[in-house]
Amino acid sequence: MNKKITVNLALAIAIIAMTVTFVITMLLSMNLFDRTVSNVRAKEVMYNKVAEIDKNVRANYYGEINNDSLYDYLCAGYIAGIGDKNATYYTAKQYLELQGIQNGQVIGVGVDVVLDTSGYARVIRCYDGSPAAQAGVAKNWFITKIGDSDVKRLSLTQINSLLRGEEGTTVTLTVLNPSGEEQTIEVQRRTYDMPTITYTVPEGKTTGYIQIYQFNSNTAGEVQTAIETMQASTQLQALVFDVRNTSGGELDDVMDVIDLLCPVGPIASQQNKDGTVTVLDTSDSKEVDLPMAVLVNGNTSYTGELFAVSLREFGKGKVVGTQTAGKGTIQCTPVTLSDGSAISYTVGILLDKEGNSFDGTGITPDVEIALKADEEANFYSLTVETDPQISKAFEAVTAMVSSQSAQSGAAASSASTPAA
Q1: Which of 32, 105, 283, 289 is 20 to 30 A removed from 119 (C-alpha atoms)?
Q2: Residue 373 lies in a domain
Q3: Residue 410 lies in a domain
Q4: Residue 114 CA to chain centroid, in angstroms?
Q5: Which residues cross the membrane (predicted)?
Q6: Claim to verify: residue 172 and residue 187 sit in the same structural domain
Q7: pLDDT tens digit sequence for 60-109
Q8: pLDDT value for 418
Q9: Which residues of 119-149 are buried (b: 16+ CB within 10 A; e: fewer)?
Q10: Domain residues for 271?
Q11: Which alpha helices (DSSP H) does 202-347 contain, by range?
Q12: Domains in the chain: how many in total?
């Protein structure tokens, strides 16, 4: 009798369990179905609208449609439409160029340019061994025409696109040297190495100067080599880093440089959409044991800002210059699409060592100094010896060296004084 009751009870429990499981499964499936149908309907509305436009235009448009260009603009429009000012759509060509820059190798003529007040493209860097350098082009030359295109009618993006191109192709440049002499040269585009820094120890100084143009996978090694080279040639007592106008690059690459210079501790974190915080990287105990100053300006952004604030928060040195740009959001590593194009969009807020965000506010220097109007206009003609902001950074770090020497002297004196 007891056995029979036990079997019936077991069957009842099994039926109840199956019923509950079925109900829960149905509810979850219905919820998933509702979400899926909602997504499908939303996508259908979007695709139908695009298809409606496409059908109308293809039936009536007078001109010819370049489908590749059309698809790129459609994708770029989607990324622009999500409202993320830091999101980017890269065409396949642009993404290949970006990968080259991140690896320190680019195909082109070998110059970095800015749009000058004259309207021409001013050469601010000409890389050693590049096609342009071999043709005699140097810093502070001007490019007035690229092929048949007048530079004054081009944007900086268009200029860079024309200077770069496929390996082995040629381009004709019309250039002006600093004396105003015009010449036409033909250069062949090819792969060239693109260092991310320059460095020097000014004559009579014991402070090294390192300018970082951008951060890529080679920057940490380049900085380490620069420091070792300067230490081998002089009794190096301090360092000045210049990240004015430095904005691009990957967070991993700037954090590698911070790790090289700074002692143990968290470098940066990411605040996620749900409010959680993820530590991105930490510095080990190895560091460069020298006082430092870092130069910034209004165009110092993102990686440049993280670099500057990190040196300050790790107690390595002072920030000198003017308020920075305040770009403190994190974009995902570009997601490659099937045709070789890519997208990148914001995934979090960048937090510094102390857990603070500089997004929208920037970094306030410890020592503020702005260039005068005429100095700003001739920024790229200034040198380490003539740039007043660099001079102020040298003063700041020299004061740090003197203060540390005085403290060391006082400690030594105290230690050698016999007890009463």
Answers
A1: 105
A2: yes
A3: no
A4: 18
A5: 7-33
A6: yes
A7: 999 999 999 999 999 999 999 999 999 999 999 889 888 888 888 789 99
A8: 56
A9: ebbbbbbbbeebbbbebebeeebbbbbbeee
A10: 197-400
A11: 219-233, 251-261, 303-313
A12: 3
